[in-house]
Design brief:
single chain; alpha+beta; 16 helices; 13 strands
Amino acid sequence: MKSLTDLTFDNRFARLGDAFSTQVLPEPIAEPRVVVVSPAAMALLDLDPSEAESEVFAQLFAGHTLWSDAEPRAMVYSGHQFGGYNPRLGDGRGLLLGEVVNQAGEYWDLHLKGAGQTPYSRMGDGRAVLRSSIREFLASEHLHALGIPSSRALCVTASSTPVWREKQESAAMVLRLAQSHVRFGHFEYFYYTQQHDLLKQLGEHVLSCHFPSCKEQPQPYLAMFREVVERNAELIAYWQAYGFCHGVMNSDNMSILGITFDYGPYAFLDDFDSKHICNHSDDTGRYSFSNQVPIAQWNLAALGQALTPLVEVDALRATLSLFLPLYQSHYLDLMRRRLGWLSSDAGDDALIQRLLQLMQDSAVDYSNFFRELGDSAPEQSLARLREDFTDLQGFDAWASDYRARSRQDGDDQQQRRTRMHAANPKYILRNYLAQQVIEAAEQGDYAPVRELHAVLSRPFDEQPGFERYAQRPPEWGKHLAISCSS
């Protein structure tokens, strides 16, 4: 294991030059104190967990000091926001501190969010607040624990620095990790500014660093686009299967790696609602839960448009057309696992859609339903779950078909229970849980957020003594208004 001072930097993105990013030093926040740390994220950098107790830890991740080999840069990009093109965005409150190479030869971006003003702050103060930093930390690490591709979060650092949103709050920083912070919007920026030489330079960088196998293909950029399409099809399938709503699927919030990225007003579904809108600023429902699939395809089309100077249009269109069938295949596979099925059947999709409609009509808790379905044999679990449905005739018909479908796989109940519990989390990051630990942290009590993080890091385990985190939310907890403001 390494100490903080032993990290090895190799800042490949910084070497692209000033056309791609601007050198900016972080603005420190006052009286830094560590709120919560992810040992699993620290391990990605080969860091000893005890390093989080050192004085320099808070100093580094509050902007007070830097590694000598760090090269903090604010990245420039553009993107489509709520369907409209914004020609110049960029890191308005975050800095790419540098790229760390771990002992396995993996590169990890260190990105400090809330680091102060940059040339891309667009009249903002460049800060993040404690509540948004905690939310991003919890979501990043929880989605990873669920097996959903995501950026990671190493720590949250609080401060006494005041910032104003709807009210006065305190500034905080979150240190997030990803193997790249390149977004669809990076390519859009160089395409729409007609800087096609720089577009190609960016493409070469992404190919070399993140898709080296594509360089061996006859059309490397087309091969790269196909891999991005494939990764996003799988990612969105995970979101839909596990009830995750991103909330702000602007093209500048879409990672070239196909990972969940840039957490804002996200939510996991409590009661199943395909039309759920988790961002109260989304007046039209553009980024509702059910719209995430077509919006992902729309964003991929925007990326494809930006690649047209490098790839023939018809080839890009043909590749984009793979998205929906790939998504559907991944989604069905995930839902079969959640329902305990080992095999595939032509009628599975219809049976799944019937269940979701019944859940929608009866406001059934999405996560708890699947967990409880695997607790005991189908006859027993379905008899208990029946109480949650209002359309009893419809549920009984579905339950009969589900039992018949499940008998096709013919394994014993213990095997079924083990398999289903490995696919269905007992613990999910509900908005009301996040709100409770945020309110405690704002009063200086960090024990609740640390405990919640520990529980959510093992979402599939029973964890005796922590069952309260698996309960259905109270009514007030289902209607929290979350906005983009951070």
